[in-house]
Amino acid sequence: MGRKAKRDILESAKVYLSKAKTAEALRQAQAVVFPLEYGMTMEQTAAAIGVSPGWACQLRNRFMKEGSVSEAGKPLRGGRRRENMSIEEERAFLLPFFERAKTGGFLVVNDIKEAMDIRLGRHVALASAYNLLHRHGWRKLAPDKRHPQSDIEIQEAWEKNSQTPLPKSTKRGRGKRRSD
User: Fold this and answer.
1) Where are the domains of the chain?
2) Distance between CA atoms of 53 and 50, rounded to whole angstroms?
3) Are the CB atoms for 101 and 112 separated by under 8 Å?
4) Helix, strand, or coil here: 10?
5) Which of 101, 86, 88 lies closest to 138, judged by CA?
6) Which of 43-47, 68-72, 104-108, 146-150 has the highest mean predicted lDDT (pLDDT)?
7) In terms of pTM, does the model score above 0.90?
8) Do 44 and 60 form a contact (C-beta atoms < 8 A)?
9) Across all residues in the chain, what is the average pLDDT?
10) Residue 113 confidence class, pLDDT cut points 50, 70, 90
């Protein structure tokens, strides 16, 4: 009875070899066909299809378990798996801050971070607020022109009253000599 099941799986894998639409589907069918049809080991099969032996075994087991190439039901890798809010929730969250910034106010990242802490009920990193703004197309448009604690009047007075720099010396100093 085991041989009949292997023959059925082998035949369905051969069919999927010809109609595979993605590289992953082709590898999955090859992981079944190569060992059963050509007597290859898992290491040889993995080398032939370009994956590790463990991954080739997983592909083969998945095909045997599901009876076909699994493409549709499984979500693809990527995406925001640990998101704090969905994109729509983020837009709604940022709307008051953006409205205030449009009317001439400033967009202060610390305020956004504190509001995120309250909204999520836990502390988040400051980088989370910056990433949130970056996702929605905001960036720091103008760098600070001066230090916040600087006093312009004192700086101007110093420039007026400071001595002029001494002229550069016209004498040439002796350079370091190389030892011969």
Assistant:
1) 2-66, 87-135
2) 9
3) no
4) helix
5) 101
6) 43-47
7) no
8) no
9) 82
10) very high
In which band, very low, low, confident or very high, does the pLDDT at 117 lie, cut at 50, 70 and 90? Answer: very high
| Calpha distance 17→34 (Å, rounded) | 11
Q: What's the CA gap between 172 and 180, in Å, rounded? A: 23
Task: Retrieve residue 66's tokens.
Answer: 């599901």
Residue with tokens 């991954």: 55
Residues 40, 46, 52, 54: is their CA dihedral positive or negative?
negative
φ/ψ of residue 74, rounded to 5 = -90, 130
Length of the chain: 180
The vertex-72 CA angle with 8 and 13, nearest 5°, equals 20
Residue 120 has which token pair?
A: 């999520």
Identify the CATH number of the domain defined by range 2-66. Answer: 1.10.10
128, 152 contact by CB (below 8 A): no
